[in-house]
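Handout, section B. The chain below has 320 residues.
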Amino acid sequence: MPEGTPEGTPEGTPERGPAGSAPRAGGTVDVGGLALSRVGFGAMQLERLEGDRGAAVALLRRAAELGVNHVDTAQFYGNGFVNEAIREAFADEDGVTVVSKVGATPDPGGRLPLRLAQRPEELRAGVEDNLRSLGLDRIPVVNLRRADSGPGLRAEGDQIVGLDDQLAVMTALRDEGKIGAIGLSAVSPQTVRRALPAGIVCVQNAYSLVSREDEELLRLCVEQGIAWVPFFPLGGAFPGLPKVTDAPEVLAAAESLDVSPAQIGLAWLLHHTPNTILIPGTADPAHLESNVAVGDLHLDAATLASLDAVESRTGDIVLD
């Protein structure tokens, strides 16, 4: 673990949001001038509540009550349903920051439920669609979802688009005031280095205790003051990939601390580097509270040493 932990980690002092609100979940990390809670909410699983919009809205509001001040979303989550629930759940005075992404679009009949939308005109259309469904004039942070790293989608044909062309439209959108800051997702260290002059504020990649191939990129983000936002933080995103909750060291730590194996896996990420922000998702209120509680979970040196020794593994994705 690099030296230094930000204020608000389990070793520091929790930061509070607006008067009377709960402490920020896990403390905060600076993301393009925004103090975002280290435990956020990934909204993708709200698709499961498409038949009960009221439940989706209530879950989002509960996240804010627990100290979560940012929600990670995309127009292609539920084909706009998730964004519309976010729009209904929060008002400006709630102080909740929306982070969205572009670069893909729904593909219900495909092997995966998404297809890439990488061309500059598709990126611009994605931002416009997000603005409409969220009811915003400006999205604080938008991630450009590429396909440099897996697991998942790979670019083919006209979806193989140069980074410079993509950054040109993203910076134009920022100059126009439609987005506040630019992040990257599913990228390599080389891509991030090339993109640094554009002012990248966060990077989202698949990363977990059992899948740590991106340590070089993580170190680069620490050095550059870029927030690190791991998705698939518990592994096992696809059949055939390793799961954090299967690791014997994780199970032992969970039993010792009387918490769930998932909480151990998430807490390790927060302890691993000070720039890490979590965006675990759920459609269940109890699971939400369990995720947010990770921000207060302390892992001692012996536990961390045991977890750090867990082997990073790859697997073979199995798609039906």
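Note. Residues 302 and 308 are 10 Å apart (CA to CA). Compare this with the example in section A.
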